[in-house]
Amino acid sequence: MFDEAKCKFAKSHEWAFAEGGVAAVGISDYAQKEISDIVFVELPKVGVKVEPGKACAVIESVKAAADFFAPVSGEVVEVNDAIVDNPALVNQSPHGEGWFFKIRMSKPGELEGLMDFAAYQKTTAH
Amino acid sequence: MNRPEKLSIEKSMAGRRGIRFAKPSKPASAWLPEGALRKALPRLPEMGEFEVVRHYTRLSRLNFCLDTHLYPLGSCTMKYNPRANEEIAGLDGFAAAHPCAPDAAVQGTLEVLRRLEKLLCELTGLSAFTLQPAAGAHGEFTGILIASAYHRSRKDRKRTEILVSDSSHGTNPASAALGGFSVKTVASRPDGRLDLEALKAVLGPQTAMVMLTVPNTLGLFERQIREIAEAVHAAGALLYMDGANFNALMGLAKPADFGVDILHLNLHKSFSTPHGGGGPGSGPVGVVAALEKFLPVPRVAEKNGKFVLKTKIPGSIGRVRSFAGNTGVAIRAYAYLRGHDGQTLRSIAENAILNANYVRAKLKDLFPSAVDEPCMHECVLRTEPEKMGGLKTLDVAKRLLDYGFYAPTIYFPLIVHEAIMIEPTETETKETLDAFVDALRAIHAEALTDPERVHAAPHDLPVKRLDELGAARTPNVAW
Amino acid sequence: MYSPHTAADRSEMLRAIGIASLDDLLAQVPSALRAAALDWPAALTEPELMAHARALAAKNKPLSCFAGAGAQDHYIPAAVKALVQRGEFLTAYTPYQAEASQGTLQAIYEFQSSVCALYGMDAANASLYDGATALAEAAAAAARITGRKKILLPESLHPEWRAVLQTYFGAKGEPKLELVPCPSGRMDLAEVEKRLDDTVAAVVVATPNFFGLLEDGAGIAEMAHAKGALLIAAADPVSLGVLEEPGAWGADIAVGEGQGLGGALNYGGPYLGLFSCKKAHMRHIPGRICGLTTDADGKRGFVLTLQAREQHIRRERAASNICSNEALCALAATIHLALLGPEGLKEVAELCVDKAHRLAEAACAVPGFRLRFEGPFFNEFTLECPVPADRVQKALLKEGILAGVPLGRFDKAMKNALLVCATEQRTDEELDRFVAALGRVAR
Question: CATH topology for B349-455?
Fold first, then answer.
C-alpha cells in the first residue's frame, strides 16, 4: 500500500509516505522484525501535534516497549485503529495494513532530511 | 501433584456454603432504599469449607516455594522465614489493634515500631526512619518526595533531574518519574561500577538526587561510594541508596558512613519477613538528621516513657498511605532482629557473601561472571549461547525447574547480556548449593547432547512453556 | 542464627573459592567504610523472644471495636488463616517463573475475577498497597487515559486518602486536585457540576463515603460522562454484598480497601488495595496482572501479562512504580470470598447494615445524641455528641469499648462528631453496652 521504495526513512526506523501535504507513517520491516511479536500499539489522538525527536506512540512486545518517533512535524489527522485492535498487522504488513497514522505536515522540507530506501537499507545491513 | 486444577468458579455448586453467619433482624431492604441495592448477587463460587480447603491446598502444591525449593532470585533475598515471627505477628494483641485506637490502647504496637526504628538507625547509621512505606518501590517514592521537599525548602527550584545507574532496578527511574523528575541514566564502567567521571560530567545545578544500589545489581560493592557522595554533595544534590541488597552489609558497614542521605530497606528481604507470593513487603526509609523533618506522617514518638503517634509535623511530606504502615510486617522484622546479637547479624552478611562466591567459583568455567572478581551477596553470571548450542539463559532457567530449583533472576541487570543473577542467601546449606551447581553443570552438558530437551523445558511441571504472546494480545484476566 | 554453616563447611567452601579466609572476600568493602561492632541488645532465644513479644502485645488493650474509618473488624474464617500460612503460598515470591508458580498465579486470576464480580468491572490487577494508594493510582490512570490534568475529590472522601493523593501529586503539581465541598455529608450535584469542565479527568465518588453515607453515584457518573470525564468509585467491598456494584451505576474505575476480606486490623497494615476497571482501560492498569493462556500442549495455564506497562521494562515511562504488592492479603481475600460465596457475603453485609442501624437508633434515643447527617448509610454513621467526641471515646475506653473515631482530629468544626461503625462481629450485648455507656457520658 505504501511502497517502501517510495518511502522516506528515519534513523529510528520509522517511514513516511508523503502525498499532497499528508504523510502516512509506520515502522520499517526491519524494525518489526527486531521488536518481534507486537502485542499492543498506543497511538496518538487525532489533533495531536507531533515532531521529530519526541516520542508520540509506543509499541509493545511481550517483554519490551519501544518508542515511536514521528519522522516529520505536523498534526495527526487520521489514526489506524485496526492496529490497535489487531497489533499483529504491524508484523504482517508494516508498509500496508500496519501503518500507524497520518500527519498533515507543517514542515514538508523535513522529508529532505530523511533517507531513501536504498540508504536506509545500508544502515540496517549487518 | 502437578495436575492442573479447575477454577474455583468451575467447582461451584449452587446452594453450597463454606461458612454461615447469624441472620439479621431485618434484611437490608428494610433499612436502605431499593435503588441502592444490587440487582444480582456477585458471581462468586459457592463451595463448602472442605472444597475450599482442598482447592487452595491443591493450588498451593503447584508452586515452588522457599520452604520446598532453593529460590535463588537475585536482588530478592529469599532467605528462610522463621516461624516464630509469624506467631508473634499473629498474637491477638497485635493483630486486633485498630489503627484509629487512641495511643493509650496500643502502647505495645507503638513500642515495637519505635524500637524497630531505633534498631534500623543503628544498623545503617542514619538518624531517623519512617516505617510507613509499604514496599521498596514505595520507599523510593517516599525518598524522592523527601528530596523534592528538601530542595523546595531551600528555594532551590531548578533541581528537576534525578540520576540513576544503568544497572539500577526499574523501580528507581519509575519512582523518580512518579515524583515529577526527569531521569538521566549514568553508564557503568566495564568493571560494573558507576563511572565517577561520567557521573561528574552530568552532575549539575539541575541534579536533585543520585540513586544508587549498594552493593549494586551486579553484586559488586561501589568502592568509590565516598568519592561519589562527595561529588554529589559538592553539586548540591542528595545521595539515595536503594537498600534492596542490604543483606550484604548487615553489621558490616553503615550506609551513613558512605555519605548516603536517604535510603530504603526491604523488610521482606534483609529482615526475613515472608515474600507471600509478591507481598506484603515493607520499605522503611531512613534519613540523615537534616532531612528528618521531611519524613512522612504519622511518626511514633516517645514522651515520658509513653509512646505517641504524631500525625501533624511541620515540614513533613505528608502521608504516603493510610495509617501507620505495614505494621504486621514490621513486627516480624523486629522479632527477627531481636533473635540476633551484633555478631550473628554480621555473620548473616558474611555467610551470604560466602555462599554467593562459592556458587560463582564452582560455576565459573561454564557460566562466566559478568565481572571476574569476588562478589558480595549475589553473583551475576552469563550464559554463552555460542558454547551451548545456541541455548539461552531462558532455556537454562526453565530446565532448572525440572531439576527442582526455582530459577535465578534472569536478563537483569539489563547491561549484562544473557544474565543469570544468583542470590543464594546465608540460610542455604553447602549441600543444597552443591546440588544446584551440579544441576547447572548437568544442564550445560545436556545443552550439547540433547539441546531439544533443554529448549522444550520444563517437562516435569504442571504446565509446559506458556503462550505469553497470546496472553498479552488477547488478555483474559477474569472469569 | 539461621546460617547452617559448620566450621568444616566454611573451610571447604573457602578452599573451593581459592582463598584462605573470609576476610579476603570482605576486603571488597574498603576498611575505611567498615562499621565498628554494633551497639545491639543480647540475642533472645525463641522462648525468650516469644515471652518478650507476648509482654509487648499485652500492652495493647483488648477492646470491643466500634471504630471503622477505613479499617473494619470483620470475622476471618479459620480456614483462611490456615491456608495463607501454607509455606507454598507464604514463602514464594512474585511468580516470575510461571511454570513453577501456577498455584499463586491461578489464585491471582481468581482474585482478579472475584474483585471484578464484586465491583461489576471487567479487569482487575493483582493488588496495590491499600485503598488510599489504589485511589492515587486510579487518579493517575484517569489523567493518562483522558489526557486531562484535574481530579475532583469530594470532602466526603476519607481525609487520609485525600492526604495521600495530596502527597502523591502535590509536589509534582499534576494532576491538580480540586475539593468538592460536602456540607451535608454527601456530594452535592450542583457543587460537582460547577467544577466540571473539559479539563477534568475524573470525578471521585466514595460510597459508602467517609461519614458512612451512600452517594448518588449514578447521578454524578452521568454528569461526569457528559463532560468526557471518568468516574472513579471508591467502595468498601463488604458493602457490595448488598449495595449496587459501581460498574452497574456508571463507574469506569473502581477501587477499594480490601482489608475487610480476610485481613486482620493489624494497626493499619498490611492491607489490600483493590483496583478494577472497564475493559477499555485495561492497558492503563498499574502493577501486576495475571492472564489465562495455554501451554505448549494446549493445556490451560496462567502467566503475568501486559508486562510492557511495568517498571522493569518501561522504567521512567512505566504506568506505575509498583513492584511488590500485597499478594498474600489478596490470597486471603480470594479464599475468604470463596468460603463466603455470594450468599455468605450478603449475610455479612446485611448483618452490618442491621446492627449499625439498630445501634444508630438506640444511640439517638440517648438524650443529647443525634445523627449529624441525613441519608442512607451502610454500617457507619456520624454521631453528633452533646460533648466533644474525644471525651466520649475516653469514657468508653475505660469500659473496654473503642467507641469510634472522633472527627475533630480531621476537622475542628466536627469536634463533637464521632464516626461509629458496627460489623457482624458486634453482638447485641455489645451494642447494649455501648448505648448504656453513652447514657453515662451524657449524664
Answer: Aspartate Aminotransferase, domain 1 (3.90.1150)
